[in-house]
Amino acid sequence: MIVSIFFYLLFFIGFSDELNNGLGRTPQMGWNSWYGFRCSVNETGVRQTADALVATGLAAAGYQYVNLDDCWQGSRDAEGIIHSDPENFPTGIPALVDYIHSRKLKFGIYSDRGNMTCGGRPGSLGYETIDANTYALWGVDYLKLDSCHTNGTPPAVEYAIMRDALNATGRPIFYSLCGGVTKYDLWLSDVGNSWRTADDSQDN
């Protein structure tokens, strides 16, 4: 797979250390799969990107996050646990996390506060505790939570549910709120480490 590498500053409107996880005190920097691959992302491309971050010196410069965006999800099992798409991620997310960590980088993952992601995969609505525990077990360092297919619950309420679930795991996971908010919302710093108030960036 040819890797179209799009490194960028994962820069949002505000930053917070209100979650007691010690994160978000400086802007998070790294790579996100959506802008180059969208739903064609697979584990080979993610591994190659991690290698490129190290080889080019970007990792040493602070670009430490390798973030897997939408469309990594397959289905949930009988216990509600999310599993990766077996075709594009045949070795599973835990093995991918281990590889990213072996490169001295941090691994980020994506979900949605609705019942489906923007790409039509299973969302986290109603599964916040299960998903938070799963991500912590896998060793995830970063969660981007999107805002598609929601049920109309105010963002401040829905985002806080996942915040509490992440906090309860005991693992420091950077919490990125994606969409459904504005820079004027006063509750943001109590809920997320960062928040996004604009449309998608483009690989251009």
TrEMBL record:
A molecular function GO annotation: hydrolase activity, hydrolyzing O-glycosyl compounds
The entry's keywords: Disulfide bond, Glycosidase, Hydrolase, Signal
Top EC class, one word: hydrolase
Source organism superkingdom: Eukaryota
InterPro entries listed in its UniProt record: Aldolase_TIM, GH, Glyco_hydro_27, Glyco_hydro_27/36_CS
Quaternary data: Homodimer.
Name recorded for this polypeptide: Alpha-galactosidase
Species for this entry: Adineta steineri
